[in-house]
């Protein structure tokens, strides 16, 4: 039996808009992934949980305008723990499209803005982990 894809989702700091990440969490669960919504946490706490829970994907949602800073902090914390290559990193939220490339340069694997169809996120995870998770 193939290992179920495990996804840890979180909102960094006090970024209050959570509806989008909950929609994504539900869609990933319906696609056959095990999702953990970790809530509003620090990056350090998220990295520790991701390592302990042996997740495949870390995803976060930002609507505060601090998406570049949070991405840098996440990648930096993963590097400090020696775990940078262990996870597929995703970010979604409302931020300028011109920042998408910089987010990828920082080390975020998948960048999803407003209007992204949840099936696109599922497909991105499947393709980048190299395994089908649905059905």
Q: What order do the helices and strands follow?
A: EHEHEHEHEH
**Uncertain spans, ≥5 residues at pLDDT below 50?**
none
Helix content: 40-55%
CATH class group? Alpha Beta
CATH H level, superfamily name:
Cobalamin-binding domain
Fill in the CATH topology: Rossmann fold
Strand order of the largest sheet: 2-1-3-4-5
Sheet-strand content, in percent, reads 15-25%
Q: What is the molecular shape?
A: globular
Mean pLDDT: 89
Give a written overview of the molecule.
With 135 residues, the chain is α/β, with parallel strands linked by helices. Helices cover 41% and strands 22% of the residues. A five-stranded parallel beta sheet has the order 2-1-3-4-5, with helices on both faces. Strand 1 (6-12), helix 1 (19-30) and strand 2 form a beta-alpha-beta unit. The chain is globular, with a radius of gyration of 14 Å. The model has no long low-confidence stretch (mean pLDDT 89).
Break the fold down into its secondary structure elements and pairings.
Elements: E1 6-12, H1 19-30, E2 34-41, H2 43-53, E3 57-62, H3 67-80, E4 88-93, H4 100-106, E5 110-112, H5 118-129
Parallel strand pairs: 1-2, 1-3, 3-4, 4-5
